[in-house]
Amino acid sequence: MSSPPVIAIIGRPNVGKSTLFNRLTGKRSALVSDMPGLTRDRREEEADLAGNLVTIVDTAGLEQAKRGSIAERMRQQSEAALAAADLVLFVIDAREGITSDDKSFSKLARASGRPIVLVANKSEGRAGEEGFYAAYELGFGEPVAISAEHGEGLSDLVGEMLAALGLKYVRPGEDAEEPPATARPIRVAIVGRPNAGKSTLVNAILGEERMITGPEPGLTRDSVPSDLEWLGRKVRLFDTAGLRRKAKITEAAEKLSASDAIRAIRFAEVVVLLIDAERPFEHQDLTIGDLVTEEGRALVIAVNKWDLVEDKQKTLKELRETLGERLSQVPGVTLVPLSALSGRGVDKLAKAVLDAYDSWNRRVPTPSLNRWLEEALARHSPPAVSGRRIKLRYITQPSTRPPTFVAFCSRPEDLPKSYIRYLTNSLREAFDLPGVPLRLNLRKGENPYAKHKR
């Protein structure tokens, strides 16, 4: 019987290698801390990679070291792991970007001749975007965006690892080409201004009086999770404290509640912004909507107290017009009228949330993207700037959650924002991506696979 493939996790200190090791092995055998250099020896554990037995190796952080020092011995251990590996996960910290050590050790990894998957850890939120795109310069192709700490992006990473090792996803008793839908619950946060009816809505969804409700604003102070099944899908629902403008937050506990609600937005996958039909789209509602899209979460807007609205058609039209003007960065956001008190409209909300989640996770094949790009350029070619026409040569989708695209361009800094908007809107329309944040980033250069292949 052949031995399991060996997968070595390497990178400079404190990029999250041990956290990723723990995620992949399903154990907490590797110590995790913000202190660099905590891991010194190689640590090996067997793991189940989508039905395939593999050996995962955690290594000390690669760093420049003096001869005879502990750091040099740690580096030797890491180089030995690299030499014995069948696959290398080269981990960078997307929040810190590419450092000189990353560049130096990427040469060491490439010289090993092993297949390499580039992992951009700590990619949650917008803070990691710049480092994620800078990682292309290491020459390992598309980085895989993950957050080892929060478990985001791991299904994409497992898919890349299986492809690199020539393995398939294995169900018990049979083989399959693609992994089944994850059993992990979809994280859904209900957010909004105080007293919008968030806890009442959660009770209506759960079918029981789980949350304290009442006319007094500020009854909810913690982001409280509840597990349920919605239309056959597992969901973890978070009721959150009402978010008010900072100037109006005075009580210390409410300050903590607000920060907890903001944290829930950052780690949710779909956010339901609940607004009051009698006072719709006040400034704070729109501020919360901006925060949700800025963080790259899928957004659904629920309009509560719809039973109190007299002219429903006129009000719905006005709300959609306001939404189109004030949240223009995410056209097509679903608007769901409902009554949290009676539960009317909750089924439509469930469908809207699951549809938004699916769009947020949508991946478009690279050939389809490049056919779209050719057609988009033919319909409306890029403008000439200073007498020279800008060329767009290639597009790919490095990550989902939200759908993120990278187009390679001759002069990205000169491409007008209006043309980028045209491309973004065309992408949404062509691949059915309404109502979710969509990132389209430009990088200078040719097709990144022309020179570097794994």
TrEMBL record:
Species in which this protein is naturally found: Hyphomicrobium album
Gene3D superfamilies per record: 3.30.300.20, P-loop containing nucleotide triphosphate hydrolases
Family label: Belongs to the TRAFAC class TrmE-Era-EngA-EngB-Septin-like GTPase superfamily. EngA (Der) GTPase family.
NCBIfam families: GTPase_EngA, small_GTP
HAMAP family listed in its UniProt record: GTPase_Der (MF_00195)
Gene coding for it: der
Binding-site positions, GTP 1: 11-18, 58-62, 121-124
Domain of life: Bacteria
Main function: GTPase that plays an essential role in the late steps of ribosome biogenesis.
Protein name: GTPase Der
Cited Pfam families: KH_dom-like, MMR_HSR1
BP terms from Gene Ontology: ribosome biogenesis
Annotated residues for binding of GTP 2: 192-199, 239-243, 304-307
UniProt GO molecular function: GTP binding
Domain EngA-type G: 5-169, 186-361
Keywords in alphabetical order: GTP-binding, Nucleotide-binding, Repeat, Ribosome biogenesis
Quaternary data: Associates with the 50S ribosomal subunit.
PROSITE patterns for the chain: G_ENGA (PS51712)
